[in-house]
UniProtKB/TrEMBL annotation:
Its main location: membrane. Pfam families: SBF (PF01758). GO terms for cellular component: membrane. The gene is SLC10A6. It is a multi-pass membrane protein. It is found in: Membrane. This is Solute carrier family 10 member 6. The keyword Protein transport does not apply. The chain crosses the membrane at residues 32-53, 65-92, 98-118, 125-147, 159-183, 195-217, 223-245, 289-310. It comes from the Eukaryota.
Length: 377
């Protein structure tokens, strides 16, 4: 593949005087506002999600980073490879192929942290993976060089290191404040976490839709990039889950790694495209990251809905099999916290999905309340 770029327009500095298309003109005028609002929103969101992080569990992930290592392998191994295979399979134009490959090489996005919270995933692992993938985003030039080595590109790709640094600051500082609030005021942090997750999800959806509407002039009628933007995040979710499962990660970590793999940093991809390509090329390229952002939101909401249905079905099955639980639940409904209920469901998920030599008596003890175990003895 070869990008049709003349030497006079290969660099953004050389093409600063050319006239922008109508769709990109609107996008360019509001790009600064969009970036500032996104940064503030991500900061507030990460502060609220940081209130769910426990220092002890976070340190355990850092001390034994097996889950983080699997996540990084998915992020910078599976996703770039998947992007390259999709480009080869669909025989795309060079410009469109570069947009897809750049998206596959980007680090994880913040939206995965919200979905991880909604599916009762490992928030400590999720935030650690997002932060580490942003730090290791320096691998982007290596990935792009290896996969474009046979394409003979005539222009150099510009890596937005400033954007990577801003994203890293927006992640680490608010999360650190959230961890401190959770350590000092654990009760108040639970309220902040619930409110922040709901408000953050709505804001992310609004910003994503607003970005698409503002750049509607950049959409084109080519259906192939839109098709790839639909199946790409799905492949990321499935392959991430399977690799986590093959490496014997917990059920909770499998959900987390799956969501982290399929969610990419859309803003970083768009920034890199603006810095590296001309206005005419951007008209063919911007539709892919925008569509990818919408489809990864849609996939995330579908995964959350499926998990909530599974969680409810699991709870009903256990109540049917154990009538004593329904009777006791009526008396202890007010005293049982949501955290205890989530832990109960997690234990039953592990018992249902993890093979082991445990017999019926052990399963009965795991499900029965403490009072009934003591009576049985």
């Amino acid at each position: 593949m070869r990008a049709n770029c003349s030497s006079s327009s290969a660099c953004p500095a050389n093409s600063s005087e050319e006239e922008l298309p109508v769709g990109l003109e609107v996008y360019g005028n509001l790009e600064l506002v969009f970036t500032v609002v996104s940064a503030v929103m991500i900061g507030l969101l990460m502060f609220s999600l940081g209130c769910s992080v426990e220092i002890r569990r976070l340190w355990s992930h850092i001390r034994r980073p097996w889950g983080i290592a699997v996540g990084l392998l998915c992020q910078f191994g599976l996703m770039p490879l998947t992007a390259y295979l999709l480009v080869i399979s669909f025989s795309l134009k060079p410009v469109q192929a570069m947009a897809i490959l750049i998206m596959g090489c980007c680090p994880g996005g913040t939206i995965s942290n919200i979905f991880t919270y909604w599916v009762d995933g490992d928030m400590d692992l999720s935030i650690s993976m997002t932060t580490c993938s942003t730090v290791v985003a320096g691998m982007m030039p290596l990935c792009l060089y290896l996969y474009t080595l046979s394409w003979n590109l005539e222009q150099n790709l510009t890596i937005p290191y400033q954007n990577i640094g801003i994203t890293l600051v927006c992640l680490t500082i608010p999360v650190a404040f959230g961890v401190y609030v959770n350590y000092r005021w654990p009760k108040q942090s639970k309220i902040i976490l619930k409110v922040g997750a709901i408000v953050g999800g709505v804001l992310l959806l609004v910003v994503a839709v607003a970005g698409v509407v503002l750049a509607k002039g950049s959409w084109n009628s080519d259906i192939i990039p839109l098709t790839i933007s639909f199946i790409f995040p799905l492949i990321g979710h499935v392959t991430g889950f399977l690799l986590a499962l093959l490496t014997h990660q917990s059920w909770q970590s499998c959900r987390t790694i799956s969501l982290e793999t399929g969610a990419q940093n859309i803003q970083m991809c768009i920034t890199m495209l603006h810095l590296s390509f001309t206005a005419e090329q951007l008209v063919q390229m911007l539709s892919f990251p925008l569509a990818y952002g919408l489809f990864q939101l849609l996939d995330g909401f579908l995964i959350v809905a499926a998990y909530k249905m599974y969680k409810r079905t699991l709870k009903i099955k256990h109540r049917i099999k154990n009538p004593a639980l329904r009777v006791e639940a009526r008396f202890k409904k007010k005293s049982t916290s949501p955290k205890e209920t989530s832990a109960f469901l997690e234990v039953n998920e592990e018992a249902a999905l993890t093979p082991g030599p445990s017999g019926p008596m052990d399963l009965h003890r795991a499900v029965m309340p403490t009072g009934q175990i003591s009576c049985a003895k």
